[in-house]
Design a protein that fits this description.
Blueprint (H helix, E strand, L loop, with lengths): L1 E3 L7 E4 L2 E12 L5 E7 L8 E4 L4 E5 L4 E4 L3 H6 L11 H11 L44 E3 H4 L3 E4 L2 E12 L4 E8 L8 E4 L4 E5 L4 E4 L3 H5 L12 H11 L4 H14 L3
Parallel strand pairs: 2-7, 9-14
Antiparallel strand pairs: 1-10, 2-3, 3-4, 3-8, 4-5, 6-7, 9-10, 10-11, 11-12, 13-14
Length: about 270
């Protein structure tokens, strides 16, 4: 099921021994467009400190109750390495964070989550609540790839032949924790119309100019199946969308990657 990221704002994060806080933002990596961290405002129990929670630790998302249950305890979170997402976060910093929790490096491996297609597909080592911070710093290249969903909302969308609208939101698959669609408002050209674009069609992003460049034309976007806020995103609608753009769907691409890995061709 696909849901808009704004629905997650304010969701309560429940650890094994109590409430951790509420979701304030989501951070994705700009290579795969997967949600790598939930930013959680902890409130009074941790002096209002913001902490990051990885989808690796998510046990269940209760959409009705607006709660997310995680396989962590408060002591683990309190002692975790600090990642200040309001500043530059490098892969070295992330590596230290992942090492602390016993998570794999999502950038190493054939799948969206490194060794697994989904974060839930990786078995996390049993937690003791007494982890120690890694003593040696990570020595991976200092690539910067984390981006805030909130900050990218509102970016301009530029087609191959000119600007076409702005980012109105994102839709995620909460099994894979991947952004499947960028919601585009085209109201400056076609009042009231919104369309969906796959991140796979993004050619580049100019972070300094707040612009997402997509490898499709304005005419293709204009003629694309319209997205209406009140309608669910069904597989029939997705098939229409991918058929219109003549691009392979993410579920077929994902199946192809899994098949290639199984045969040793990745």
């Amino acid at each position: 099921m696909l849901n808009k990221t704004t629905l997650l704002h304010g969701f309560v994060i429940h650890a094994k021994d109590g409430e951790l806080g509420k979701i304030d933002d989501l951070y994705f990596d700009d290579e795969s467009w997967a949600i790598r961290y939930l930013t959680v405002e902890t409130g009074s129990w941790l002096s209002g400190k913001s902490v990051l929670i990885s989808p690796y630790s998510i046990m269940e998302v209760d959409w009705q109750a607006k709660k997310i249950h995680v396989l962590l305890d408060k002591k683990q979170v309190e002692n975790s390495p600090s990642l200040n997402v309001h500043q530059t976060v490098s892969r070295q910093h992330e590596g230290r964070f992942l090492d602390y929790y016993g998570y794999p490096s999502y950038w190493d491996g054939p799948y969206l989550w490194g060794p697994a297609l989904y974060p839930a597909g990786y078995i996390i080592p049993a937690a003791t609540g007494e982890q120690k911070l890694p003593e040696e710093p990570w020595m991976e290249p200092a690539d910067i790839h984390l981006r805030s969903v909130a900050s990218v909302t509102g970016y301009h969308i530029a087609a191959l032949d000119g600007e076409i609208g702005h980012v109105a939101g994102f839709f995620i698959d909460s099994d894979a924790w991947a952004i499947r669609y960028i919601e585009v408002a085209t109201n400056n050209w076609w009042p009231g119309k919104k369309v969906l674009l796959s991140p796979a069609w993004v050619e580049s992003v100019s972070w300094s100019e707040s612009t997402v460049h997509v490898a499709v034309t304005r005419k293709m976007i204009q003629d694309a199946p319209e997205y209406k806020s009140e309608m669910p995103i069904t597989r029939d609608y997705e098939n229409q969308l991918y058929g219109h753009y003549g691009r392979p769907s993410y579920w077929l691409t994902q199946a192809g990657h899994a098949s290639a890995f199984a045969s040793g061709d990745w």
